[in-house]
Specification:
By secondary structure, the chain is mainly beta. Helices cover about 15% and strands about 45% of the residues.
């Protein structure tokens, strides 16, 4: 028996290699929000992960050059919103630099701890920030979940091959 390699030609690690590989990884789409000194801030994230069940903890990454970073760097609490497939426009708004993310087209309210909560999402959490860990040009934010609601309607929104998409049946 002869083994053949399906691994292709390896490439040296680079930011482009990482982006190319992760374009092939389907990820759920979330919006992270916080109360900032000048008003609410938020951004689209595909880096959301469940970290621990006891205590309930989550994590997400944010670039230190992101417009939301200064508020996230100081926030005691964050909102985490799982987006539905019907919310591609909302995901795009929170991903777009310079967008009026909390303008008239975004339905939201002030939630516990002053965290901005988006309306109409399939699920949301409020987390108390426990740590901000340096990770290259990003920070990994760890938050302990203090409150949430998993009862919203809708199927999850995904991000794959550089675009928002939905589950297929």
């Amino acid at each position: 028996m002869t083994a053949t390699s399906d691994l292709g030609t390896p490439r040296l690690a680079s930011p482009e290699l990482l982006r190319s590989v992760f374009r092939r990884h389907a990820a759920g789409v979330a919006v992270i929000t916080a109360r900032g000194a000048a008003g609410p801030v938020g951004f689209t994230a595909t880096s959301l992960t469940s970290v621990s069940a006891a205590p309930p903890m989550i994590s997400f990454g944010i670039g230190t050059g992101a417009s939301s970073w200064p508020a996230i760097a100081e926030a005691g609490h964050v909102g985490v919103h799982i987006l539905g497939e019907h919310q591609q426009d909302l995901a795009a708004t929170f991903a777009r630099s310079g967008a009026d993310r909390f303008g008239p087209s975004t339905a939201w309210r002030e939630g516990p701890e002053g965290v901005p909560l988006l309306d109409g999402v399939p699920a949301w959490l409020v987390g108390r920030v426990a740590a901000r860990v340096p990770a290259g040009d990003h920070r990994l934010v760890l938050a302990e979940v203090v409150l949430g609601d998993p009862t919203g309607a809708g199927r999850p929104l995904l991000y794959h091959q550089g675009r928002f998409t939905a589950l297929r049946d």
